[in-house]
Design a protein that fits this description.
- By secondary structure, this protein is an all-alpha fold.
- The protein folds into three domains: 2-33 and 42-126, no CATH class; 143-240, Up-down Bundle (Receptor-associated Protein), CATH 1.20.81; 247-314.
- The chain is 82% helix and 0% strand.
- It is built from 14 helices and no strands.
- Helix 10 (197-207) runs antiparallel to helix 11.
- The longest helix is centred in the last third of the chain and has 50 residues, at 230-279.
- The radius of gyration is 26 Å and the shape is elongated.
């Protein structure tokens, strides 16, 4: 128990120091970029900064070279970029290592746990930052899908008024809600720098791997080859997206009951064990002291967690 009180504050202090140091480095880098930009401001300056690519995996040289040898790092980098987090992979991996160490420090007082339980706790703790990235990425895509149909309606009105495609996309880049405007501004700035529209739209679909964006890009590219009334096509597409979003909301409301049931069923076993321990501590003491009791407890906990994710997966209904 004494070791627990020593390790947890130590790891928390190390994590806080690393976070403060990374924040200071980020602020210094931002001030340096602002000085190099020569005081450029406004919407054009913001759009240009969106195009700047930073391929460095970490500011620490040896750590960056080590990360370049790992295959899954590229997937992690893509997920972080899709979540619109300005974290370098060095910072991300450092956070994962620190959270894994904190998970180990949390399990250290429980000496009766088997060895593989510590390994599972370390892996689960290390994946916490990655789960946060995935959650933020999912929320960003959901917000974009909610705002995209209205943005397409504005684009349709601009096209019907006789505006070219570039002017319609510029309208989305500077007049749409933030979730849509940021991505459209990047595509528009790429086109201004000389990139063909097809390539700029393909980059948009790569940054936002959602069906709505893929349909929009396919419609614009098909129109550039065959012609037709693009405003009418995009209007029908926006109406279909709006109906699909409404159906998705209804399905989520129905599936919420199943997710609540899964949560309750997951909490019932530990609650019963806690009440039994309060009423009759010796009843569970036999299981803890038995040679195979520790393994059985860990397998039971792992089974409950696995069953929870399986039930949530079953409730993940896609319209």
């Amino acid at each position: 128990m004494v070791l627990w009180f020593i390790l947890v504050p130590a790891f928390a202090a190390a994590f806080s120091a690393a976070a403060i140091g990374l924040a200071m480095l980020t602020r210094l880098g931002a001030s340096r970029d602002a000085q190099l930009a020569g005081g450029a401001a406004g919407s054009e300056g913001e759009g240009s900064r969106l195009l700047i690519r930073d391929d460095s995996l970490s500011t620490i040289t040896f750590w960056a070279k080590f990360l370049e040898r790992l295959d899954f790092i590229h997937i992690l980098k893509k997920r972080t970029s899709e979540a619109q987090l300005d974290w370098s992979l060095g910072r991300m991996t450092a956070m994962m290592l620190l959270s894994g160490a904190i998970g180990y420090a949390f399990l250290q007082p429980f000496t009766w746990l088997p060895g593989f339980a510590y390994l599972g706790g370390i892996l689960l703790g290390a994946l916490v930052p990655y789960f946060y990235v995935l959650r933020r990425r999912q929320r960003r895509f959901a917000r974009f899908e909610d705002e995209f149909p209205d943005a397409l309606e504005s684009m349709c009105r601009a096209l019907r008024a006789g505006q070219p495609l570039s002017a319609a996309i510029e309208l989305l880049a500077y007049e749409s809600p933030p979730a849509v405007a940021r991505e459209m501004r990047t595509a528009y700035e790429e086109w201004k720098l000389g990139m063909p529209w097809e390539q700029a739209l393909d980059n948009l679909a790569a940054r936002l791997p959602v069906p709505d964006v893929s349909l929009f890009v396919a419609a614009v590219k098909l129109h550039s080859k065959t012609g037709g009334k693009l405003g009418q096509i995009l209007g029908s597409l926006a109406e279909s997206m709006r109906e699909a979003n409404a159906l998705t909301g209804e399905v989520r409301a129905v599936a919420a009951h199943g997710r609540l049931t899964a949560t309750i069923l997951t909490l019932i076993p530990p609650l019963i064990a806690f009440l039994m321990n309060m009423v009759n501590p010796r009843y569970l003491e036999t299981l803890v002291k038995h040679p195979y009791g520790k393994d059985l407890i860990f397998l039971a906990v792992a089974g409950i967690i696995l069953a929870h994710f399986v039930m949530r997966k079953l409730m993940d209904i896609r319209p």
